[in-house]
Structure prediction request, 630 residues.
Amino acid sequence: MLQSAIINSQQHVGLQKLSALAGMLHSSLGPDKKYKFIQDDTSGESALACSCFRIIENLEPTCAVGQLVYETVQAQQRVYHTGSGCLLFLAGAWSRAALDCLQRGISVTHIISAMSEGMDICIDVCRKSSISIQDLPVTLSEGCSAAPGVCITPHVSCDLQETTKVNRKTLNVSGQRKVKLSRHFCETKSEIVSQARQPRPPGLPDIPHIAETLSHGCDKAMKLVVEAIQLQSDDNQQDGCHPVFDINKMVTCVLPGLPEQHACVVQGCIVLLSDEQASVAHHLKAQHLRVALINGDLSHTYRHLGFKTPAGVQSVSDQLNLARLSKGDEWLDKVGKLLLHLEVNLILTTGHACESLIQHCCKHRILVVEKVNSSILRTFASSTGVVPVTYATQLSKHCVGTGVQVAIWRDLSSFERKSSTAVRISTDGNVGLVTAILTSCVQGKLQALEDQFWACAYRLHHALRDGALLPGAGRTEMLCIHHLQDHREKDTGSVQHSGTGTAADLYRSVVFRLMANGLMDYITTVMVNTGAFSKVKARTIVGQHLQNFNGDRGIAAKFPQLVLEGDKDAPAAASAMKPDEAPAVKIYDNLSVKLEAWRKALDLVFLVLQTDAEVITGVGQKNEDNLMLL
Prediction:
């Protein structure tokens, strides 16, 4: 307890910063997000953002905790494209819980141990509450029907028995979750859901219905996702085979200046071109082109990530500006002759192309398309037989292929755009490549609309990959709160009444209560953000449902939906909803996404907690037992 007293006598600045940073983003939680203007006082530039990830990105945090938060949220966004708000909110809530524990004299070791056990309880609740996507109750709203031919085979079918086996791998001998603290949060696979492929079940999931339950307030974006899947189905459905939703063959194209109702989905890859490049595209349309694929920048200064300049070696010519220019001209001349010799008409590159090469290619009617998604590049490579290269100088006749066409999709010159022409690039075969066209008269909204589209697409993608969903709208969180409170009461009872409990049981009871409070804050904040509840009313409603819950029915689906889309004008409907009353649309959450967000939130708290403790006490032989070494 001496070490705990030393720790508690100091301020845990890291945990306080984490809590404060998370508190700034409460309005971005839930389906009813609020837009925020972020202005740079130095440059005067501003950005419009409504998601936690974009707000953190534009704030550019420079402190250590802020950088950790940014890296954690970035890792979540890179893999799942959703769940960042939940992650950051719970990180803030549980950091306050850790601060409360420290003020009570609970050691860092006991905090980490008890919080890990609390997370195990929540994981177990989620595992038992998950519902197979094939067993979702069909409660489609009026006017919405399942489109035939859009039933997609899930990547993974996870029944509860199989999921149970997988979850055992995340527990150690004592039953507690193995804590992985890392400076970089770079996990790409869920530890919770099985990734092993299972045989395709007889019944196939209803994609439009699953999409509807996962829209989370982004109905227009999810509608585009379903349309994209329909186009992929039309492309790939042959010989009665069921197609597979391939998110890697989706791309977005944003068009500012057009009203949002012009958003649509089209086959092929749509790109925007300048007037000069558009004239080349007009010349190449309806031709079978010879295409080259460059995986990187198209310039003489580009070096791939594995390239390393020998230490201590410096070229004298690099110090002379004239020599550098002549080297660039030499490269341009070499690449230009090579492209003409190989009769290349079209170049697709994942990076940028230098302006001089673009101008040179335009003169010889060679179209250069920059910033092509790497997955799209792989799609073109597989469908045409083209071999992508890192540098243009590596091109040979074996690396150039055919089977690609260019067509003018839209002339946008009337909107006074810098890039005035939209061009469609497609292949001879149907490969399921589709583009979602996103439009808005407010240019600042385009980033948010694009984020919403990808969030919906990845929710549907992970639902099919997991093969299961969690009851949403606060139902899973309420069941987790119920179980944490139940374990807390058992621990408290064993200490106070039977006398067989230990101090660890009492600590665990406190931690479980504080973790449950964090989940309670999460639910009520989402409810408040809908505009239908005050904070007091939201907590009252959640508390009443928890009191009335019959533990024998212990599945999350028995709880009512506390956040109902479309009920802003009728707040009483949400508070009066009974468990046996089916709403027009039941809301669900992704199993792997939610659990990964919770895991990252807790690991972030642990990392900051222990770093604070090390800064305050130092690490030596006397206090090593009080810390969990990274």
Q: What stands out?
A: The chain has a mean pLDDT of 76. Residues 503-529 form the longest helix (27 residues). Residues 2-136+159-191+469-626 form a domain with the GROEL; domain 1 fold (CATH 1.10.560.10). Residues 541 and 577 are 11 Å apart (CA to CA).
